[in-house]
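Revision sheet: structure tokens.
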Amino acid sequence: MWSACCPCFRTKQTSNGLYEPLLLEKEREAVNDLLEFLQKTEGEANITDERLQALCTLTYSENVDLQRSAALCFSEISEKLTTPIDESILEPILSLIQSQDTEVQSAASVALSNFALIGPVANKEVIVRCGALRPLVALLSSSNVDVQCNACGCMTTLATSETTKRMIVVEGAVGPLLRLARSRDPRVQRNATGTLLNLTHLDVNRFELARFGAIPVFIGLLQSRDCDVQYYCAAALSNMAVHAEHRVLMTQIGGGDVVRYLISLLSIGIDKVKCQSCLALRNLASDGSTQMQIVEAGGLKAIHPLLNATDVECQTAAIAALRNLSIHKDNAVAIVRENFLADFCVLLGNDNEPEIQCHTAGTLRNLATEDLKDSILNSGCLKTLATVLLSANESSIVQSEASAALAVLAANVKCQEAIVGFHDGRFIQVVMEMAMNHGSEDVRYNCLGIIGHLALNVNTHKTLLSCRPSVLDVIDVFLKSSEISHVHIGMWATCHLSEGAEETKTLIKQAKGFEMILKWSGDDAVPEVRQLAETIIKNIK
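Predicted:
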């Protein structure tokens, strides 16, 4: 709050040794009006036309002390004003932030930042529309750390829309922001990296940032002692790593420093830093060579404890990273060897977190493509996947991920025998019904994939044929589909059945879908489908 010792009341000595008031009468009236207003203000502030006129009088005065007073007054008001601002209020503030006096710049930039941060959302649009970005960018080059800090903080708040994010870059802010990101003042560094993070949310900006050398700056600042800077830089690198060329550049810097730094933050960082570091590793693990590099650098041991974290976002980020790492064959073996499967069973059973369930099922699907199916069966994950498929909400993508994993695992003989017996045989019945009627095309396709793999084992044929609907009823729906991929998997499943007992072959001939098999054996059919149809006909003759 202002007091009566405001610098506006300073006097100056004349040549004859007498003192005369520094202020013009109009300026004195403006000061008195504002002092009275600020001293009485409690709770919400408001700016009347008269008060705004008084503020403008001080703003456009040639007296620097009055300009400072105006800026401080705007700063005070900005902490309390909850009504939207307009151009008439912004015009004097923008004039003040372009002052040559750092005290004026500092107070005015605080006011602008408060209006954007504390005031109504509409304030941000008005501030940008009135041309605040260009003078704010200019303030980034100030030698005063308070001005630097305030300008960065205001930009962070304004950079919420795609249009503004782009305008900040176009106005030339990237270079100054990167310089301030290396500031010795932690407040400036924090605000600069926060603004840069917001800019990375826009795809086109990422390439500009890379061109200005942002990536090595972000990597270096991962070693900052400030947890907010760590968080901003890990998140920025995660966004940058969406692009393959940026991932290559990241892993080349310092011989893979980014991987080592991110892994170290999984152990020493706070939850939000751990989460963003995992997400950055997840995106970096989009490439095979980096998948191996992360594991070789100790990534699995660092990620493992996060699967049991109390913070759900940490858990989600950790399993998402593992999902990408599990794509590599050698990593898949290492994951099983590191005893992750028991944790996967727990994560799959958490029906309150569908995203975690999806990533876990996807990880198991990747593991199941290698010679690890027996380990997955013995761990209990196979049965948990089956339970999840039965219990998940029908609209959930969890069923899509779970059915896809089960379809791959069902290629294993031991898994086939286990699947048929799940839930006293009820599981197969439900899979049949899903294959025919589920609202998701992916789930229907995956369920027939499970059925088709089970049909590889002649010992399952009796069960598959005795269900209602039976396997032949399901296949008939797929053979009549307009989607060639559905026809193909239907033929593929029928082909497996056609290698069974004579009774099974007879049922195939009598099934509704047999006419479609004959049709697809014609010369004008898709070659892959025709070949399957010809094999079926040959087997059942």
